[in-house]
Amino acid sequence: MFVRTHAGAIVGIDAVKVDVEVNVAGGGLGLFLVGLPDNAVKESEQRIRSAFENSGLRMTAKKVVVNLAPADLRKEGAAFDLPIAVGILAATSQVDASKLSGTMFAGELSLDGGVKACKGILPMAVRARAEGLERFVVPAGNVPEGAVVEGIDVIGVRSLSEVAAYLNGDIDIAPASANMVRTEEQSLNRYAEDFADVRGQSHVKRALEIAAAGGHNVIMIGAPGSGKTMLARRLPTILPPMTLEEALECTKIHSVAGKLGATTGLLTRRPFRAPHHMTSPVALIGGGQSPQPGEVSLAHNGILFLDELPEFGRSVLEVLRQPLEERRITVSRARYTVEYPANFTLVAAMNPCPCGYYNHPTRECTCSPGTVHRYMSRISGPLLDRIDLHIEVTPVSISEMSSDRPEESSASIRERVIAARRLQEERFRGTGIHTNAMMNSRMLREYCRLDAASRSLLERAMDKLNLSARAYDRIIKVARTIADLAGSPTIGTMHLAEAINYRTLDRESWGR
């Protein structure tokens, strides 16, 4: 007997519908899997046989051929266990096959017949809906994730025997419903951190506000204990809320990477990723034998924080250059090519020298000028060029730390950031551009016109600091964001002067 049901295969952060074709014939014995299955899929035979035995179901003694179509697409992961098992049950008349044509299945089988959670449920649910299927049967542990997708019935199951009973009509399982609170309202909930906790550092807070408003990359350089990490971890508290589209895209990436918990549905907070400096290039950028999103993609629509930047390997840092420009990653290998989104804001922190006290107001640096220069040279010029804001973080004085003067809260700063983002949203409507940092050359000419005084100021700065053409563009983008925060329709000399001031590391005197 021949039956067909449906599964999903992950390609990048999207899913492709896979037809699971099962044919039970009289001649021969055994289970044969075809259609480019990987080892995890091939091993499903042993899991399925044990699950049948421990669920009171009968595994046929006839020859079973399972084809995973399209046959030229590699199938990976244990999520194919359940659709293959259901196909065998239907082909041997143990379950009613009438529901199979409108149903997608996904789930890993345990040896005792349980259905375990698997990765990639959200993109599979999106694909199932796009294909016009009526329902999607998923592990109970993946129900919150699958229920995010409206327009398709998501059925949560805990065991193979429960699936069989559901298909035969012996039990009724109500479709899951997502507890959909507005994304904006959820993302505005309180954080444990707040800028009100940070004493002093007003110039750093200002720079981070500009970074949040325009999506600009930031590097903070200062002595140990000056507050670089503390400030960076508070940056998400002033970012604008994610739109529903952004939240779905982030959730798909984390679903494919297996980073969603059993109770997580839609991600509502912007990601904050802080990989250790021993991270490999593949872990940062993505890929691997079985392709997975890297840290730059997990930080999509959020923050990638690299603490102790010079301690990262040179090869690790250099792979950031393309995603910082293209805002996506294309991983090409002999067996596959996948593309992952990578529209993140880079926040980096570093000491000014090996001992950490170069330019310190009260402590003496023990490093020679050559040592400081070599330490700074670990960060290449092309990478620094792609970082818009260079901020020198100085230690807070004892009098500031003990002051009772209240500091501005994250909520207050966030209101200004949201107002500036609304101006950018209106400016770039329909272009696919969302922030000033994403502007291309044509948009720079259209939205960032400089008057004669501003142009003269920028030319003098370019000559004195010996800046590149990329740094020229980034100064103008930062100035546009500063003007947006001020509610100014045009870029003035004061906006441009502040933007130029954030190019600390371009100065020839630094580290010499």
Spell out the blueprint of helices and strands.
Layout: E1 2-11, E2 14-25, E3 31-34, H1 39-42, H2 44-54, E4 63-69, H3 81-91, E5 103-105, E6 108-109, E7 115-116, H4 121-130, E8 135-139, H5 143-146, E9 153-157, H6 160-167, H7 183-187, H8 202-214, E10 218-222, H9 228-232, H10 244-256, E11 272-273, H11 281-285, E12 286-287, E13 292-293, H12 295-298, E14 303-306, H13 314-318, H14 321-326, E15 328-332, E16 337-341, E17 345-350, H15 369-376, H16 381-385, E18 389-393, H17 398-401, H18 410-427, H19 441-447, H20 452-465, H21 469-485, H22 493-501
Parallel strand pairs: 3-4, 5-8, 8-9, 10-17, 10-18, 11-14, 14-17
Antiparallel strand pairs: 1-2, 2-4, 6-7, 12-13, 15-16
CA-CA gap between termini: 79 Å
> Biggest β-sheet: count, sense, barrel?
5 strands, parallel
- Level-2 CATH architecture of the largest domain: 3-Layer(aba) Sandwich
* Topology-level CATH name of the largest domain: Rossmann fold
Strand content: 15-25%
Number of helices: 22
Rg, Cα atoms, Å: 27 Å
Which spans of ≥5 residues are poorly predicted at pLDDT below 50? 180-185
Please give a structural write-up.
This protein has 512 residues and is α/β, with parallel strands linked by helices. It folds into 3 domains: 2-167, 2-Layer Sandwich (Ribosomal Protein S5, domain 2), CATH 3.30.230.10; 181-402, Rossmann fold (3-Layer(aba) Sandwich); 439-512, Helicase, Ruva Protein, domain 3 (Orthogonal Bundle). The chain has helices at 39-42, 44-54, 81-91, 121-130, 143-146, 160-167, 183-187, 202-214, 228-232, 244-256, 281-285, 295-298, 314-318, 321-326, 369-376, 381-385, 398-401, 410-427, 441-447, 452-465, 469-485, 493-501, and strands at 2-11, 14-25, 31-34, 63-69, 103-105, 108-109, 115-116, 135-139, 153-157, 218-222, 272-273, 286-287, 292-293, 303-306, 328-332, 337-341, 345-350, 389-393. It has a 5-stranded parallel sheet. The protein has a 4-stranded mixed sheet with strand order 1-2-4-3. The longest helix is centred in the C-terminal third of the chain and has 18 residues, at 410-427. It is elongated and about 85 Å long. The chain starts with a strand and ends in an 11-residue tail after the last helix.
